[in-house]
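User: I'm preparing a small set of examples for a lab meeting where we compare how different chains pack in three dimensions. I only have the primary sequence for this one, and I'd like the structure in token form so I can line it up with the others. Please keep the answer compact; I'll paste it straight into my notes.
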Amino acid sequence: MRRVLLACTAIALLACGGSDSTGPAPNVEGTWTLQTVNGDVLPFTFDVEPPSYTAEVTNDVVEINADGTYTETSSIRETDAGTVSEHDQVGTGTWSQRRRSLDLTDSNGLTVTGTVNETQNTLTINAGLNLVYSRQ
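Assistant: Understood. Below is the structure token output for the 136-residue chain.
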């Protein structure tokens, strides 16, 4: 009886196992575009020195390369005392992957971790904000 119970438990545990434990890791290489921040669509506005200075992220693209590097290009709209300007901000770094988990380390050594959902082609990064990217 005990062997049957152990066998059933082992089968149940194997059946509950997620895609993290079996099969190949999803391919994360490619271009990912920011869709939402904390569930809200872009632009994402943050106050730097309210009320005279604010900044908005109007677009953000992460290109993950096969050589273990990435480039992130953010389009920023700044409003400073009523004067509006727009520019791109580019950052680079390296990445590593553990199954569905992705670590992005920028050139300053700051690392953020993301999770890849291959069925929805989304990359979710929690960097103090919940950032959801879709594969392009």
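A couple of notes for your slides: Strands lie at 30-37, 40-41, 44-49, 53-64, 69-80, 83-98, 101-106, 111-117, 122-126, 130-135. The longest strand covers residues 83-98.

User: Perfect, thanks.
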